[in-house]
Specification:
This protein has 246 residues and is α+β, with helices and mostly antiparallel strands. The protein has eight helices and six strands; from the N terminus they run H-H-E-H-E-E-E-H-E-H-H-H-E-H. The chain has a four-stranded antiparallel sheet. A two-stranded antiparallel ribbon has the order 1-4. Helix 1 runs antiparallel to helix 2. The chain is globular and about 65 Å long. It holds the Pfam family Nlig-Ia.
Length: 246
């Protein structure tokens, strides 16, 4: 295999692995066995080691890597991550509906599940995941990009070469939370109080290799910004997720 053949094969492997990641982690509809997936990843890693000039940060082989950090760098959000108000009673919901209609007239609502985890912002430039950050104070958060790259349901490269910003909630499935606490108890370590605390603590590890072991997932629920497009409804903006592969 010459250099050009290696480059083409690396690109082919990346496309295949990204496709199967999406089928498995987002759609929950795998098309190949774990063994077949592992063989694709092994071939990619071997080729990138042999031809390091073709290794790029958006490669699926680069989800876990790098040395532990001393601290997280601050990151100023492109779009402020404002907090959401809560409603606990039917009267509070009716009051919210009244205030919305007084402001904008008749509306249709999008109803989504409330997932308790850690809010994050993902920035894509030319379709490549470049920065992931925590909410922080809503204006400035912490750059936790290496840790978020370990979450396999976060695409490192989109289907389209677009510039966009999305917001999501990183969470730990209950079964994974129970398993993690069981393992910590066996080692005599303190237990996490709930899945939310476990997710937040896992994302804020200075060593991404620790984060990678925590079986985290993400629910992306909001398109903050996309270059060259303007959506009038939230429902309309969500349809961009399927087109881009988020």
């Amino acid at each position: 295999m010459d250099r050009e053949e290696a480059r083409k094969r690396i690109e082919e492997l990346r496309e295949k692995i990204n496709y199967h990641n999406y089928r498995y982690y987002v759609l929950d509809q795998p098309e190949i066995s774990d063994y077949e997936y592992d063989m694709l990843m092994r071939e990619l890693i071997e080729l990138e080691e042999k031809y390091p000039e073709f290794k790029t940060p958006d490669s699926p082989s680069q989800r876990v890597g790098g040395e532990p950090l001393d601290e997280f760098e601050p990151f100023t959000h492109i779009v402020p991550m404002l907090s959401l108000a809560n409603a606990f009673t039917a009267e509070e919901i009716k009051d919210f509906d009244r205030r919305v209609k007084e402001a904008v007239g008749e509306v249709e609502y999008v109803v989504e599940p409330k997932i308790d985890g850690l809010s994050v912002e993902l920035v894509y430039e030319n379709g490549i995941f470049t920065v992931g950050s925590t909410r922080g104070d809503g204006i400035v958060g912490e750059n936790v990009t290496p840790n978020l790259k370990t979450i396999k349901s976060i695409p490192l490269r989109l289907k389209d070469s677009v510039n966009l910003v999305v917001r999501g909630e990183v969470f730990m499935p209950k079964a994974s939370f129970a398993k993690l606490n069981e393992e910590r108890a066996e080692r005599g370590e303190s237990l996490f109080a709930n899945p939310r605390n476990a997710a937040a603590g896992s994302v804020r590890q200075l060593d991404p290799k620790v984060t990678a072991k925590r079986d985290l997932d993400i629910f992306i629920f909001n398109l903050q910004r996309i270059e060259g497009r303007d959506f009038k409804t939230h429902g309309g903006s969500l349809r961009i997720f399927e087109r881009t592969g988020i």
